[in-house]
Automatic annotation (TrEMBL):
<protein>
    <submittedName>
        <fullName>Signal peptide peptidase SppA</fullName>
    </submittedName>
</protein>
<dbReference type="GO" id="GO:0006465">
    <property type="term" value="P:signal peptide processing"/>
</dbReference>
<dbReference type="GO" id="GO:0016020">
    <property type="term" value="C:membrane"/>
</dbReference>
<feature type="active site" description="Nucleophile">
    <location>
        <position position="383"/>
    </location>
</feature>
<dbReference type="GO" id="GO:0008236">
    <property type="term" value="F:serine-type peptidase activity"/>
</dbReference>
<dbReference type="InterPro" id="IPR002142">
    <property type="entry name" value="Peptidase_S49"/>
</dbReference>
<keyword id="KW-0472">Membrane</keyword>
<keyword id="KW-0645">Protease</keyword>
<feature type="transmembrane region" description="Helical">
    <location>
        <begin position="12"/>
        <end position="35"/>
    </location>
</feature>
<dbReference type="InterPro" id="IPR029045">
    <property type="entry name" value="ClpP/crotonase-like_dom_sf"/>
</dbReference>
<keyword id="KW-1133">Transmembrane helix</keyword>
<keyword id="KW-0378">Hydrolase</keyword>
<keyword id="KW-0812">Transmembrane</keyword>
<dbReference type="InterPro" id="IPR004634">
    <property type="entry name" value="Pept_S49_pIV"/>
</dbReference>
<keyword id="KW-0720">Serine protease</keyword>
<feature type="active site" description="Proton donor/acceptor">
    <location>
        <position position="191"/>
    </location>
</feature>
<comment type="similarity">
    <text>Belongs to the peptidase S49 family.</text>
</comment>
Amino acid sequence: MKSFFKNVLANIVAIVILCVVFFFFFIIMLVFSAMGNEKSVVVKKNSVLTINLKTNIIDSPTEEQRGLFNISEQNKNVLIYDAIEAISKAKTDDNIRGISIEADDLNAGVTQIDDLRNAIADFKKSGKFVYAYGNAVSQASYYLGSVADQYYLNPSGMIELKGLATEVTFFKDFADKYGIGIEVIRHGKFKSAVEPFLRNDISPENKEQLSTLLNDIWKNTSSKMAASRKIDTAAFRTVVDSLYGMIPELGLKYKLADKLIQKTEYDQLIKSKLSLKDDEKLNKISLGKYIASYSDDENSGDKVAVLYASGSIYGGDEYNDIHSEKYIKYIRDLQDNDNVKAVVFRINSPGGSANASDEILFELQQLKKKKPLIVSFGDYAASGGYYIAMAADKIYSEPNTLTGSIGVFGVIPYFKDIANKNGIRADIVSTNANSQYYSSLNGVTPYGVSLITRSVESTYKRFVHFVTQNRKQTFEQIDNIGGGRVWSGTRAKQIGLVDELGTLNDAVKFAAQKAGLKSYGVASYPKSMTPFEQIFKDLNQDEISERVIKNKIGKSNYEILQQVVEKRKLQSEIKMEMPYQIKIN
């Protein structure tokens, strides 16, 4: 019997060891597969550069979301800078004959689509063709695809061309119903990040700024679509108002599409354009694979470094979003790197922690003393996102960037009412007058409110001070256009909040010029996670939970849920943060 149990135990141990060895062997195979995937790409003659659903256009390496079983090129994350450079290179590449846009639901921000669109428009100057095809086409995808020479739609397809709208969600009644108290202190009548906890409807000030912002963005995007499709402005408005794109025959009638054909017919049409025979293969190459077919040596020579800062601003040292400890290290490394002659700081952030923003700004100010620092704005550069730009030698914004929101607020949640309703109360014993100025059960004391108000006002004055220094305007001038108001990049240029309207690529070129570089490479920071690092990050319990919930309820609903329950959104801290996002869905 003893021998029997020994054998069973030995077999169990052997199975466990075998499973562990197999698991690590599997991971190593995945890593080497991912590493080797991109080194053997060859661009064949008569190739068509293809923008499709296999490519995610991202603004920063920290936005990469490669899952445990999804680290291949099939869902390649491509930096917008690399995408623009690829399209520019394809313009003069004899192996690339044209571009095919085949993305029904483009995964990219509004400024990223702008940059892609402008790059493709420039590509067309080469005389090479640009075609687009769609099935169920989102508004964002049509905005990009409309730049094509010809737009083809599936006979049972649709184009969701509808204009822009925003829906502001309010939680005041929810908080009152369940006994959740929220003490709010803010500076700026336009600082609407806290409105959902204070009101049941949108304020006139917030409605004014949202209306102006949406109309600025829609005027810019709709005029480009109308011009590309050769549709009169008034007629285009009628098409959008009437949702004609939802019916394929009406989309064709009102010039949103040139022809209704099946995808196979579309591919055959491209083959005819390339003078290919029926038995010859149509060579399509994605942006990701095309970028992988060439590479620059980042290890030697003079460099312009692009430091990407994407997401909300927090303290700490996590990889995703903008965590101050992590970014302080990045900035100091760039400051000490002799190969880096200039830095472009790419900001795509709605803001966040005032303290963390201040820490990052200080380090950038030290960096600026040693080498040129140019700032480029992506989709967002608001509140803390705008604050950390105030060390720049020059600021570039995209026309549709959400810019400014110079304002500060503090949110203090407490649960006294709900606790009392459920038989929970608390007494306080303390040594000093304000040892317990805030409690999650008893709320905030009147003196605590006055103290936090002073802190908010002090932080706002510090915010405006740095803006006056960088923008060379008076306190009164900045205060007049501040107050938490968000502006489009176009208006931000008009009122002096930015220096130029331009892309990340424009900012890189200017940085090189300011550093006196004639020949240089471009290096991206922070470096992307290796597949191995990504695998272990994906095993994090919080990451798994977030991904599961997001997949179940959808990304938009998850963002609403975050406003209510995410700890970092409601923690007692002074904030520089924007309340909403604008997307061309």
